[in-house]
Amino acid sequence: MIQRTFVVLKPGVVERRLVGRILERIEDEGLSIVALKVVKLGLEEAERLYEVHRGKPFFRDLVDYVASGPVVAAVFEGADAVNVVRKICGLTDPSKAGAGTIRGDFGVSITRNAIHAADSAESAETEIALFFESHELAS
Predict the structure, then answer these.
(1) Is the pTM of this model over 0.90?
(2) What is the mean pLDDT of residues 56-78?
(3) Quick one: fold of 2-136?
(4) Which residue pairs, CB below 8 angstroms and at least 24 apart, start in 13-20?
(5) Helix (H, G, I), strand (E, B) or coil at 68
(6) CA distance 76 to 32
(7) pLDDT tens digits, 12-34
(8) What pLDDT is attached to residue 139?
């Protein structure tokens, strides 16, 4: 099934100039970029992105970090896109993510784990709408 998914490359990835390497890994899995932009999130936007984690002990650190510098927001399209991206991202904790995964290779900590990826097709739709207007998505 062809679907779309959403990712955010976090500020540390932009700062460390790893954007191209990570986007290439996702493309190498057969997915196509259909939207891409560099943005600086405000705290309210970051809170909306991580709304599902509100009330958890790490929520504030996560929101503060993702709003601390520019991020790259992207939409990828392809067969089973959500699961493909989740698999290559690896576990949330980079120390447990495994070599060869994005978080295992580029993550620094649970909060600074390099990438946010939608966890379902429904989440992807919601998150895409937070960052992109429909006319910004290539078909």
Answers:
(1) yes
(2) 96
(3) Alpha-Beta Plaits (3.30.70)
(4) 13/72, 13/106, 13/114, 13/115, 14/38, 14/69, 14/70, 14/71, 14/72, 15/69, 16/106, 18/106, 18/114, 19/72
(5) coil
(6) 5
(7) 999 999 999 999 999 999 999 99
(8) 77
Domain ranges (residues) in the chain: 2-136
Distance of CA 32 to the CA centre of its chain: 15
CA distance 56 to 128: 23
What distance lies between CA 108 and its chain's CA centroid? 15
Which is catalytic among the residues 88, 104, 116, 117? 116
Active site residue 53: no
**CA gap 133, 130 in Å, rounded:** 8
Residue-wise pLDDT for 74-93, tens only, equals 999 999 999 999 999 999 99
Residue 13, Cβ density class (10 Å: 0-12 exposed, 13-18 middle, ≥19 buried): buried
Contact yes or no for 50/41 (Cβ under 8 A): no
